[in-house]
From TrEMBL:
Protein's UniProt keywords contain Oxidoreductase: no
Signal sequence bounds: 1-24
Main localization, broad class: membrane
Domain TonB-dependent receptor plug: start-end pairs: 120-241
Record's protein name: TonB-dependent receptor
Membrane is among the record's keywords: yes
Length: 1012
């Protein structure tokens, strides 16, 4: 026994000897990892000794302890989205605190893709990312404007200069004729309503519901463009998906930031119109050419042109833009928060036009333990929009000012407004644009709330379950009154000349519940598997009502309860639902070969029982060539990846229950009843887009140069449209799936860090070429859309072999020098010009578009410049058709180009002769189709961050002052003011039309940002 005990002690002593020797060879290193931007702790950072397997990770407070071999060693710190660091540690150092900076290369950045997150370098699909620093200082109203010129394949156009007005976004072209072409917008996992909350479009211009989300609360925007990225959204993904992630708190002391901005807003330009003398001369020429005596018409020089009013200037002003925001963020290892409150107030450049927005946001994250955490987000916005009539409204303010005769004045000698039908001024025209701006009340109140709560449960180390419930709520109220001194309130027969009022409300909300299991597994550093499986239930409900009144006792009583007659009104109710199941699998072998597959099944209440469920699969693959041995010697190459994807997406946004046969109220022979209103179609289904994408990603010279090139082809069939049928059926159309549209194109993006020292200079450039083509329509019919056009029937046509946005009209061949009449191409050779001679005369699709951004910083100074360009697109200038109308209507002013009109035989010009009542010389033709290409200095930001030693004396963490400008300069060929506007905001079949559309505005403002 003693012998075994002695042996045991000997072995134990030997083990202690060796272990003490080993312990003598290592030493502990401790420290904390924090973030450079705000000093917050960074949990989960990988800390390893370079060249060994010794390693650990930081805890929830960013702390770590690591046993390091004695002697000089290199410790490596890495974390997704942060720049890796290598720190050399000598034998006498036991504490190493590390400050990590956010990654300056896209390869390490974390992006949101559908229902998951991953590093940029592991992306297989086509995804464009726009971070907050690209737009945080810009005076934009909504986050959709932040995308303009910033991402390849994303075409963003501002329809007009109206504050809070519509923005048209197209991702890789137009895919639909009648269904929505807008992408799906997701804010913090919640799909949000992007339509108009008002019932009146005010002359083609809608309000923009996305303008109610404060861009300053956004951390990043991801745009999903190909099937592998967006097929997980199935029947809603055909037009692309825009994912907005808002800011969240971090584990650090509370930080408070105040942001103050104030500036001026003015129109980028005004149309060039005739003065009184010039107009009177033109009107006399037109009357004489028609065989009439101009003196009998009251057109007497020296008398008629005694007054010379610039009507456009009369209805315009220099607006004031002001914006204030206060944010606070911080938290502990258990609970983090982000809070913000802001006010934006923008005076429109037109009198009485104003947009005011109040926003608040609160994001909370709470970790119960290492297995369970909760998150909540609330984003609330209230708006007040004082609108005025515009564009193609007959009594629009801007359109009326352009057309008004300069030899009239808006005010009499006493400074009182001239009003329609005023017995004291019987010679005054029936419309005063200044009065139309100042006298009516068109006020819209908006409320939008995006809220959600989620739970993440780590069931195992590899398996995570997330459940989320969210809501998008929208409410709009319209309060309108047009007094008896306006065109409608005073002249509308139903109003009896005693005022007209409307009050309407609308509510639309969406409830979403999603449940997702995510699985992640890595095996021996060679195999990596990620998968998710989930379901989603979406319920949408909409209600609206309206009432109108007339015969008000006076213009001091302006609400409906004062109306003498209240006999117009209505109400509306609709709901829809979507039940979905989806799954995704991604496999990575040796960080070299990546494959992925996605499948989503959607069941929609919007389609018939025969086509209720749809299936949307996608497959994708990538090959990282930079990991191959044959590229080892290419030292400048950091990452090179080829990728490809193929899949299907859909579009179900056409309205509710379009497949049903419906009945409607009817009146016959004085009796009320119901009658059939629409034919049923149980085979109606969503539009389906078949997408192919090939891409190449490259990073070179230590990630200082990054390239992305892509080619794609998207074919959309089963187009949703009301197919015309013979009227002998008792109906004019039936909702069906009638045609095919193809979009194919190429995208190229390059980002470079040109200088990286104390003087930093980076450049981002993107360019896109997209070819849109209507490949097939049912029965081969041509569908005419847009405005009714003199001589040809319509301004736009949808026909096979041509892109959407095609203009239709006569081909203008010039002006006959002998007669001064317009010459048109006689296609059918019948010797006369008629609608049978109509043909394609251009289209609104650009040949290419893109943007160029340069950012420069030196010490505390920073400069950012964005150039936005578009080339090859046309615009149908219907304003010009009205203001250069060859005498068809001389009761409107004309543009300065009328001075070069044909006057005598032998004159060579492009403007036909003026003759009162002449319509032939003003037929819809290529004379009014112009090149809308432009290069625009979209944004300029100049800032200065005060030195820390200055601001810390007044207990500040950071202070920055800056000046921004938008739309400062435009290079264009277009004879109008702004080539980018679109009268019919958001229209696909009639895009690219300028009919008295308010141009965009130029903004110059200063700001200061203070952090405490």
């Amino acid at each position: 026994m003693n012998r075994y005990f002695t042996l045991f002690l000997g072995v134990l002593s030997l083990l202690l000897f060796f272990s003490s020797g080993l312990m003598a060879q290592v030493r502990p290193i401790a420290g904390k990892v924090t973030l450079a931007t705000d000093g917050s702790a960074v949990p989960g950072v990988t800390v390893v000794v370079k060249g060994s397997t010794a390693g650990t990770t930081t805890d929830a407070n960013g702390n770590y302890t690591l046993n390091v071999p004695r002697g000089q060693q290199v410790i490596v710190y890495t974390f997704v989205g942060l720049e890796p660091q290598e720190i050399t540690v000598g034998s006498g150092r036991s504490t190493v605190n590390v400050v990590m900076e956010e990654s300056k290369t896209e390869l390490s950045q974390v992006i949101v893709t559908g229902y998951s997150e991953l590093q940029r370098r592991d992306v297989i699909g086509s995804i464009a990312s726009v971070k907050n620093d690209r737009f945080k200082d810009l005076p934009i109203t909504g986050f959709d404007q932040a995308l303009q010129g910033q991402a390849a394949g994303v075409q963003v156009s501002q329809s007009s200069g109206t504050p809070g007005g519509g923005i048209a976004i197209r991702i890789r072209g137009n895919t639909s004729i009648s269904a929505s072409n807008r992408p799906l917008f997701i804010v913090d996992g919640t799909p949000v309503f992007d339509g108009s909350v008002t019932s009146r479009d005010f002359g083609g211009q809608n309000d923009n519901s996305l303008a109610v989300v404060n861009p300053n609360d956004i951390a990043s925007i991801e745009v999903l463009k190909d099937a592998s990225a967006k097929a997980i959204y199935g029947s809603r993904g055909a037009n692309g998906v825009v994912i907005i992630t808002t800011k969240r708190g971090r584990n650090n002391k509370t930080s408070v930031t105040a942001d103050i901005q104030r500036g001026v807003v003015q129109l980028i330009g005004k149309p060039k119109l005739l003065n009184s003398t010039q107009l009177v001369e033109l009107q006399r020429d037109a009357a004489t050419a028609a065989g009439q005596n101009p003196d009998e018409l009251g057109l007497i020089p020296g008398v008629t042109d005694l007054v010379n009013t610039d009507w456009v200037s009369e209805i315009l002003r220099r607006g004031i833009l002001q914006q204030y925001q206060l944010t606070a963020s911080g938290g502990t290892e258990k609970t983090r928060f982000y809070f913000s409150g802001g006010v934006r107030d923008e005076e429109g450049v037109q009198l009485n036009n104003r947009f005011t927005r109040y926003t608040g946001a609160l994001n909370l994250d709470h970790m119960v333990n290492h297995r369970l955490k909760f998150a909540a987000n609330v984003n609330v916005s209230m708006t007040q929009n004082d609108r005025i009539k515009g564009d193609n409204f007959l009594d629009g303010v801007y359109s009326g000012a352009i057309k008004s005769l300069p030899y009239y004045s808006p005010y009499d000698e006493m400074g009182r407004l001239y009003v329609p039908n005023d017995p004291n001024y019987p010679d005054f025209p029936n419309f005063n644009p200044v009065g139309q701006a100042l006298l009516p009340r068109f006020r819209t109140y908006g409320l939008k709330m995006i809220a959600g709560v989620s739970m993440d449960a780590n069931l195992t180390k590899e398996l995570v379950f997330r459940s989320k419930v969210s809501m998008d709520y929208n409410n709009g109220e319209e309060d309108q009154y047009e007094p008896s001194t306006t065109a409608i309130g005073g002249a509308l027969p139903s109003a009896g000349g005693k005022g007209y009022g409307v009050y309407s409300t609308s509510t639309q909300y969406t409830l979403v519940n999603s449940n997702v299991f995510s699985y992640s597994k890595s095996i021996d550093d060679r195999h990596s598997l990620n998968a998710l499986l989930g379901n989603e239930i979406i319920h949408t409900q909409a209600r609206s009502s309206s009432v109108s009144g007339r015969m008000f006792p006076s213009n001091q009583f302006t609400y409906i309860n004062s109306a003498g007659v209240v006999d117009q009104g209505g109400s509306f109710y609709a709901q829809s639902g979507l039940v979905s199941f989806f799954g995704e699998v991604k496999y990575d072998f040796k960080d070299k070969y990546l494959v992925g597959a996605t499948l989503r099944t959607d069941g929609s209440s919007r389609f018939g029982q025969n086509r209720r469920f749809g299936y949307f699969p996608s497959v994708s693959a990538a090959w990282r060539l930079s990991e191959e041995a044959f590229l080892d010697k290419v030292k400048f190459l950091d990452d090179l990846k080829l990728r490809a994807s193929y899949g299907f997406t859909g579009n179900e946004r056409i309205g509710n229950f379009q497949y049903l046969g419906t009945w409607a109220a009817a009146v016959y022979n004085g009796n009320t009843g119901v009658g059939p209103n629409r034919l049923p179609n149980n085979n109606l289904q969503w539009e389906r887009t078949n997408e192919i994408n090939l891409g190449l990603d490259a990073s070179m010279f230590e990630n200082r140069l990054r390239l992305v090139a892509e080619v794609y082809r998207n074919l959309t069939d089963k187009l949703l449209y009301s197919e015309p049928i013979p009227l002998t059926t008792g109906y004019g159309s039936i909702q069906g799936n009638i045609g095919t549209v193809v979009n194919k194109g190429i995208e190229f993006s390059v980002s470079s860090d040109n200088l990286t020292g104390e003087l930093k200079w980076s450049t981002d450039f993107n360019i896109t070429r997209n070819l849109n083509n209507v490949k097939m329509l049912a029965k081969g019919d041509t569908l005419y859309r847009g405005y009714t056009a003199s001589g040809v029937g319509a301004t736009n046509a949808i026909l096979a072999g041509q892109p959407l946005g095609t203009f239709w009209g006569l081909k203008f061949l010039g002006v006959d020098p002998a007669t001064g009449n317009a010459l048109y191409e006689d296609i059918n050779g019948d010797g006369k010009i008629s609608s049978e001679d109509g043909q394609v005369i251009g289209n609104a699709q650009p040949d290419f578009y893109g943007g160029l951004t340069n950012r420069i910083s030196y010490k505390g100074f920073d400069l950012s410049i964005l150039l936005h360009f578009m080339y090859g697109n046309k615009v149908l200038n219907l304003t010009k058709q009205s203001l250069l109308n060859a005498g068809e209507d001389i009761e409107t002013n004309q543009e300065i180009a009328a001075l070069r009109r044909w006057r005598k035989e032998g004159d060579v010009t492009d403007v036909p002769r003026y003759e009162l009542g002449n319509t032939y010389n003003n037929y819809q033709s290529s004379r009014f189709v112009e090149d809308a290409s432009f290069l625009r200095l979209k944004n300029v930001v100049v800032g200065y961050t005060l030195p820390a030693r200055w601001v810390q004396r007044v207990w500040l963490q950071n202070a920055r002052v800056f000046v921004t400008g938008t739309n400062l300069w435009t290079l264009k060929r277009y004879s109008g003011v702004d080539p980018e506007v679109s009268t019919l905001d958001g229209s696909t079949s009639a895009q690219g039309i300028d009919l008295y559309t308010l141009p965009q505005v130029k903004t110059i403002q200063g700001g200061i940002t203070l952090s405490f």
